[in-house]
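For the sake of transparency, this paper describes our internal protein records without simplification. Such a record has a labelled line for the sequence and another for the backbone structure tokens. Nothing more is needed to write down the fold, since each code stands for a local backbone conformation. For reference, a complete record is included directly beneath this paragraph.
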Amino acid sequence: MLNNKPTGITLTRLLILFALGYGLMACATAPEEPMEPEPIVLAEPEPAPPPPPPPTVMKPDHPDRYVVVKGDTLWGIADRFLNDPWLWPKVWQINPNIRNPHLIYPGDVVVLYYVDGKPYLTLEGVAGIVPPRDMGVVPSKDIETVKLSPQIRYDTLEKAIDTIPRSAIGPFLYRPRVVTKEEIDNAPYIVSSYEEHLISGTGHRIYANNVTEKNIVQYGVIRPGQVYRDPDTNEILGYEVIRVAAARVVRSGKPTTLNIVSSKREVLNGDLLLPSEESELDFNFFPQPPRDEINGRIISVFDGLSQIGQYNVVVLNRGQREGLVPGNVLAIYQSGNKVRDPQSSRWVTLPDERAGILMVFRTYEKVSYALVMKATRAMYVNDRVTNP
């Protein structure tokens, strides 16, 4: 008979085998002795790229000296030397005790020199300012240092050059102006002319009602134009009036009698009279950025053009209350078009793009007139203007 009872030897062997297997596993998983960590070597940081050089004020091909000729403009001379002509006040040095620093005349010689690496422009001769050579002056060419002494201040009989081209705003010189609603409502008006002509011109006699000022003898014959409104707020900024003629009072009364001394357009019954502006248009000012931040729009273009280019006169919805003065230079940004997204079919407004530069030459309380000095693309009414 077979004996199925397990023997002690078999059980013992099993226990031994189990113990051996456990020991082997323990040996296999036993932690190794700790090793010294290898030192971490950090890579040397790459040197930062050098900062870009500051934008240079001077043009690469600037002249060292320039002789002013008749027909030059201050803007044109500044553009010969400077990348940005409106930086002229930063580099222009003149002796105000001898010459008006705003005036440059044909025959003057504009010279360039450097002080501690900074460029300066001045006039050659006693009107200019040339520091002594021991102050780090590096003339672009040999410039004679002139010792100044007290002398009589004078201006040459030659007419000073204009800041902007007078010919570019020739049509504007017989100028529009901006007035208030009250000025229009209270203005004298023409009721008739001598021999009752429907249309009058230079040399004709006219009659006007509502002339209340006894001390005013010179009037502009004006005709109301467009109403200027702010495109963003709808505020009425002023009323444009166009001067069509000049008239002089020859007899007071009701009505008052006037003679038309000059006319650019026909004079009609109902045209208004406003006192002639005291000062002529000033062409002698410095191109310069505005003192304060300006964000405005072109709200009109003179003579009703639809597309704006170089030397067009435009109207801005910013004026004296925003700190604008003649000579202020602004950048023009063409308003971005709206296009349809090809995937979502939604309308997307493209960013504004810089399109040109303009210079303010006449300011009123809430609006200004400006001349486009440079155009790199077409511009339109409602395009944005801001600091350059």
